[in-house]
Please model this.
Amino acid sequence: MEPSKAARQFDVKGRLVHVNSIGRGNVNDTYEAVFRNGGAVERIIIQRVNSRVFMRPEWIMDNMRRVTDHVWSKLESEPPDREREWGIPQVVLTRGGTDYIHAPDGEYWRALTVIDEATAHPKVRNAEHAYELGTVLGCFHRLIGDLDCASLHDTLPGFHVTPAYLAKYDRTLAENGLQERLEGVPDVERLHRFVEKRRAIAPVLENALGAAELQARPIHGDPKVDNIMIDDFTGYGIGIIDLDTVKPGLLHYDFGDALRSACNPAGEDETDLATVYFDINLCRAFVKGYMGQARAVLSEGDRNYLYDSIRLLAFELGLRFFQDYLAGDVYFKVRFEEHNLNRAKVQFKLCESIEANESAIRDALRAAER
Model:
């Protein structure tokens, strides 16, 4: 189904005048649809859901509606924030009153409201920006903290379960003698050695979950820099988008993923590895903002594994990029040859920088918890 045809099936007043690909995300296809009704203009986001990745798109929409309804009900019951207007995208219904379109060609489409006059930046800009990123994630965790985790579908079984990604990597290497065929390729051999040296860290969070030191809760699943909206006028963080990956999980998946994203000023697609590092000043700002909102929802066990989550999520994402490169780029979208290989190099370089800054990171976490 063409994006324009999909857009017309959602319940928006006015005439569709423009559909534009906005290219956000490595998995789904995302567009902005603009409707004009007299002198008024309304914009919505429409997305073609990648059903090869999300095997039950209807579960995604059920989770999204539960979480957005819960967040809005909490915001309405709380005193207004004098500094900022919190927000989260809301599901736009189809003209038939459903949450999504299941087209005859098998594609799934959904639509969401736009958070106006706000921008999701591709990279962290400064410490103030990092503070706002932490504040938004902390607020989100606080608002969904009392949502019954059992009410959410597990839309991506194994998502952020690092031992499962490691096992998938091993299977990829074993297929058709891949490991032997790649011997002598310097970049590949170096990344493979990096993985081998860190196998022991893969199960740290899952072991803690199994030992009941951590507990499953509702999570966002992908709270990287460009999923957090910053008010264009005030500079305050006001919302979080891309709720496809909302599901039961560990807060540490979100915390670690957000920090490995926010504290790398170079971004995920940098080709000059010399510019990739974990910025401890951005880390201090982020965790200060996060703890200001989420301190009360963290247990002592949660606090014990915060550093581990930062290190692990950088390693995990690098492992996923590397495995996808070896498998032929079948999961993540790529824009050039060896894109996923370059992405893996960035994350592994970041992981090394996190390890080198362990003491400073732990000090920053302790300072923000007080």
Observations:
- Residues 1-55+88-114 form a domain with the Phosphorylase Kinase; domain 1 fold (CATH 3.30.200).
- The chain is about 45% helix and 15% strand.
- The mean pLDDT is 91.
- The longest helix spans residues 306-327.
